[in-house]
Design goal:
single chain, mainly alpha, Serine Threonine Protein Phosphatase 5, Tetratricopeptide repeat, 2 domains, 21 helices, ARM-like, PSMD5, 26S proteasome non-ATPase regulatory subunit 5, ARM-type_fold
Length: 316
C-alpha cells in the first residue's frame, strides 16, 4: 500500500501534496517514530527510493521527514544501528541522484556532518554522494572529507576495502571530466598526501600488491578511476614503482587483477593521448609509453614463452 502511494507521489510535487493533504502519507511519518525497529527500517527503505526523485526529495524536506531522520541519527544512533544503516543508504541515494539538489539539503540538515560522526558506517554513502559530479566540489571541500582522508591510516584491512571503494567512486564522478572537475579532484588528491606519511601513491601500491584479493581489487579500482585524469597519469608516471607494478607479469595475480591492471594501462594510454592532443603536454616519457603500449598489444594474459629441455635432450 505505502509503496503504491509513494509511487504516485513521485509523479509530481502536486501529487505528493495532494496525497499528504488527505492524510494518506501520514504512515510515513508515523513509521519513522515507531518503536518497532523493523517497521522503521522498512519505512526508511521506502523513503530512500522516494527521495531519489525531485518530488520525493522536496516532499522529504517540506514535510519535516528529513528533520525527523536527522534527529534519529543524533539521538538514537547507538540504539538503532539497523535504522541508521538504512538512513545512511538513504543519504547516499539522495546524493547520488541527479534529480536531487543535495547541496541545498546538506546546508539545511548538515547531512555531511552526520556522516562525519558515523564515518566508519557511512563510507559507502560518502562515495555515492561524492561520486555525483554535482556534489564533488561540495563534498571534497567539507570537513567530512578531511575526516575521511585522515582516518585511512587507522583502518583495519576490511575497512580499507570500503574506504578505497568510496574513494574510487569520488574519483569516478564524471566519465569525461571537464578541466574544472579535474582541478577539483586534483585538489582533493592533494589532501591525501599527509606530511607524516609516505606518498599516497606508495601507500596505494602496497594495497594493490596485497595477496588479499578484496584489498588488491579495491586499490586497483582507485588506480583505474584516477588515471582518467591527466594529473593521475602524471602521478603514476612520476612513481617508478607504479609503472613497474603495471608492466610486471605476476603469475600470482588473479584473473580479475590481470584484467584490472590491463584496463588501467589502456586508460593511461588513452588519457595520455587525449592530454597531448588537447594541450601538447606529454604526461608519460617515451619509454614509459612504449612499455605500456607493448603490454596493451600483448593483452592481459600474455605469457612469455620459455625454453624447455627434456632429459633425453640433455643426455644426448
Amino acid at each position: 500500500m505505502l509503496e503504491t502511494l509513494v509511487g504516485l507521489a513521485s509523479q509530481s510535487l502536486e501529487a505528493s501534496k495532494a496525497l499528504d493533504s488527505t492524510g494518506l502519507m501520514e504512515p510515513l511519518r508515523a513509521g519513522l517514530a515507531s518503536a518497532d525497529i523493523l517497521t522503521r527500517f522498512n519505512i526508511i527503505e521506502i523513503l530512500a527510493e522516494f527521495g531519489t526523485t525531485t518530488p520525493g526529495s522536496e516532499y522529504l524536506d517540506s514535510s519535516g521527514i528529513l528533520a525527523q531522520i536527522a534527529n534519529v541519527v543524533q539521538e538514537e544512533a547507538q540504539q538503532d544501528s539497523l535504522g541508521v544503516t538504512a538512513i545512511l543508504k538513504l543519504y547516499g541515494q539522495l546524493g547520488a541522484s541527479e534529480h536531487v539538489d543535495f547541496v541545498s539539503l546538506d546546508m539545511k540538515y548538515q547531512i555531511l556532518n552526520q556522516l562525519e560522526r558515523l564515518l566508519v558506517e557511512s563510507m559507502a554513502a560518502i562515495g555515492l554522494i561524492g561520486g555525483n559530479v554535482q556534489n564533488v566540489e561540495w563534498v571534497t571541500q567539507s570537513p567530512c572529507a578531511e575526516t575521511f582522508v585522515g582516518v585511512f591510516g587507522s583502518l583495519t584491512r576490511d575497512l580499507k576495502v570500503a574506504w578505497f571503494h568510496s574513494l574510487a567512486q569520488i574519483f569516478s564522478c564524471s566519465p569525461e571530466p571537464s578541466p574544472e572537475t579535474e582541478q577539483l579532484v586534483a585538489r582533493f588528491y592533494s589532501q591525501l598526501e599527509r606530511p607524516d606519511q609516505s606518498p599516497f601513491m606508495a601507500r596505494l601500491l602496497v594495497s594493490a600488491k596485497s595477496r588479499t584479493p578484496e584489498l588488491a581489487m579495491a586499490a586497483l579500482s582507485v588506480l583505474r578511476s584516477l588515471v582518467h585524469f591527466g594529473f593521475g597519469v602524471q602521478k603514476m608516471g612520476a612513481d617508478r614503482d607504479a609503472i613497474m607494478f603495471l608492466v610486471e607479469r605476476n603469475s600470482q595475480d588473479s584473473h580479475a587483477e590481470k584484467v584490472a591492471k590491463f584496463e588501467i594501462i589502456d586508460t593511461i594510454l588513452q588519457t595520455s593521448q587525449n592530454v597531448q592532443s588537447a594541450t601538447g603536454t606529454q604526461v608519460l616519457t617515451a619509454e614509459q609509453a612504449s612499455r605500456l603500449e607493448l603490454i596493451r598489444r600483448q593483452g592481459p594474459f600474455f605469457l612469455r614463452a620459455t625454453a624447455t629441455v627434456s632429459i633425453q635432450d640433455m643426455a644426448a
